[in-house]
Specification:
This protein is mainly α. The chain has one domain. It is 39% helix and 8% strand. The protein starts with a helix and ends with a helix. The C terminus is likely disordered. Bound molecules: heme C (HEC).
Length: 321
Amino acid sequence: MKTTFVTAAVFLFACKSPAPAETPQNIAVKQAPEESYQKSIDDTAKKMLERGRDIFRDESFGSEQFWGDKLRLHEVIAGEKHGGTGQGLTPRTAFALGLRVDFGRVPSALGDVIKGGTLSFDDAENTNNLLKHDAVVGVKAFYEGDRMVSVGITCALCHSTTDDNFGKGIGRRLDGWPNRDLDVGKIVALAPNLKPIAELLGVDVATVKKVLESWGPGKYDAELLIDGKAFRPDGKSAATLIPAAFGLAGDVLECIRGKHADARRGDVLRSEARRCEEISRRGESEDRTCAAEGGSRHREPRGVALLPAGHSSAEAAGRLL
Ligand code: HEC
């Protein structure tokens, strides 16, 4: 019995693996110059990496339909001079909100001003100039001529920062590093029209403002617009700390307990029943006990929750691939 099995196994193996000399080769393979395939594999890998980086930095996934078209956030950023309202977002306010400037994208004339230490922090014209050059990390402003017509955000808004080599908030871009100064809630609260959020959540605008202001720097509640729950069962904010977007392979990324215990969230998220204490990593206290208690791993790119209706996570994933 045993011999039969071994013989059969050897026979099967022999069938599947012909000796190299007998391996059929197609003509193209024979004629290919040595190493050509290796090079194209390497080139493809490099291209995909570059494309992914471009997407991470600059793809807004149509989020301008929400932040700009609906909330009209661009109007307060642009200011009257550029088609909006008021004086516009000054560099001083932008930096206070934790926004970052990628010096590598600053136009050279303005770069010299920054290096010389004479940048006017109270002139919204400078913010507009930086936005036009896509130099404000993760903020994608759309202009028609000199008029800002909408604004969207990219992954880099939360998941990139700068090394501050040229002053607070201005430096070389560090992709994947969380921006722990960024006050997402306060930025959203600047929007002239918070009604779309209030309607989504079934509350009034004052409540929306209160929730947004409860987040604080470095935090964002990526699920609020999906589940409508702003606070944990213990009454504290449900916003989570922005994690680093690298080095996560194999990590217990997020434990979801508590917040969603009683939430009716549809099939996709139903299984992730409860949210744990906010995750922290890299030296900060990490609550891993929820994993032991059955908390689930969550690996979907979080920008999805920011997308306007009609954009599916499949579309986002497709663009990330
Ligand atoms: C407005 C801020 C913000 C933006 C924009 C954002 N993220 Fe996140 N991201 C977070 C926060 C906060 C978390 C962790 C909290 C959570 O998962 O609820 C997170 C988690 C992650 C994680 C870790 C997964 C996990 O559960 O730990 C990855 C990877 C990630 N984001 C990638 C992306 C990508 C790719 C994009 C762009 C499509 C993006 N993020 C856009 C704030 C943001």
